[in-house]
Every structure is written in structure tokens, then in C-alpha cells.
Amino acid sequence: MKEQFEDLRASKKERMEAIQSIIQKHDVRNQEQLVNLLKKIHKISTNQSAVSRDIKSLGLVKDENTGCYVLSQESRQKQLFKELAVKAREAEVEIFDGPVEGLLCRTSSQKIESAPLIASYIEKIFSTDQIPVAAFFNNSGYIWLIFPEKKKKIIQKNLKKIFLLVKNEKG
């Protein structure tokens, strides 16, 4: 009896993983379609009532625009949280636990594509093993610098020198 229960749990887990895979790759609008895709793609035979319970367990909802099943935002966040926990454990992530500061820079709207390169240079110039500096950029040309509080004045001073040099060369 215990073995049968474990087999059912394993097959439910397998079915739920297959359902997640299917909804990420296919537009699924109803449970019957999902039952058919489980059989066709993953060779999993099941019925509509089991799929209905799985949909509820997975936190699937219908997208308002497409009418297709998607993970609810809460379910997606839980899934991403679990994935992040695994990746962080594998990467042996440590938290920098000290006072931090930040600076925000921005490239001109005509030079947005240069933000990644500038962020990389800033990290190479200012970051050391003992005192990390992180530079993040987005698609709008913004560069966000994060660093220990004690390094703010030296970074600001040097960045102003660098940017002033550039401005003077242009003018």
C-alpha cells in the first residue's frame, strides 16, 4: 500500500512538472487540451479531474488577454524563489552585511548601448577583493553603482574627474 502511494506521488509530481512545461511552451485554453497534450508530448495518461486538481495545486490561472493557462504571479514568484535558492546554494552566495551607498549615472539617450561597457569599466577601476563595487545597467542607459559607504567620496571624486575630462574634451 505504501509503495502504491509513493508511486502515485511520483506520478503526480511528474504530471505537474509536465503541465508546467506544457503551459510554458503551448497555448492551452482548456483542461481537455491539457489532458491531450500530456498524453501526446509526455506519454502521461490522466483524466480531467486529476488535471483540474493539478491546475489548482500549481496555482494556474487563465490569462485575461489570451484565455490561456499561466502561472499566477504568486506561484511564479514561489517557483523563482525555489530556483534562486538552489542557484544561490550552488554558487555559495554571501551577503555583504555593511553600510552601502549608491550612485546613479545615465548615458545620453543616443548612446544607451554603451551603458554595459561603462558599467564594466567602473567595476574594473574601483572594485577590489576587499571592497566590492557593483555596477548594474538597464535598457534605458541608467547605471546604478553600489559600494561600501566608506568608498563613496573616492568614487564620486574620481567619477567626476573622469566625466569632467570627457566633457572638456568634447567642448
Gyration radius, in Å: 25 Å
Order of helices and strands: HHHEEHEHEEH
Count all strands and give the number. Answer: 5
**Helix segment count?**
6
Q: What is the 3D shape?
A: elongated
Structural class: alpha+beta
Beta-strand content estimate: 5-15%
Strand order in the largest sheet: 3-5-4
Mean pLDDT: 86
> Uncertain spans, ≥5 residues at pLDDT below 50?
5-10
Helix content: 55-70%
Cα distance, first to last residue? 83 Å
Largest sheet: 3 strands, antiparallel
Describe the overall structure.
The protein has 171 residues and is an alpha+beta fold. Helices cover 57% and strands 14% of the residues. It contains 6 helices and 5 strands, in the order αααββαβαββα. The chain has helices at residues 2-25, 31-42, 48-58, 73-91, 115-126, 152-170; strands at 60-62, 69-71, 100-106, 134-137, 142-148. The strands form 2 sheets. Strands 3-5-4 form a 3-stranded antiparallel sheet, covered by helices on one side. Strands 1-2 form a two-stranded antiparallel ribbon. β4 and β5 (142-148) form a beta hairpin. α1 packs across α2 (31-42). The longest helix has 24 residues, at 2-25. The chain starts with a helix and ends with a helix. Mean pLDDT is 86; it is low at 5-10.
Name the descriptors.
171 residues; alpha+beta; three-stranded antiparallel sheet; two-stranded antiparallel sheet; 6 helices; 5 strands
Ordered list of secondary-structure elements with their pairings:
Blueprint: H1 2-25, H2 31-42, H3 48-58, E1 60-62, E2 69-71, H4 73-91, E3 100-106, H5 115-126, E4 134-137, E5 142-148, H6 152-170
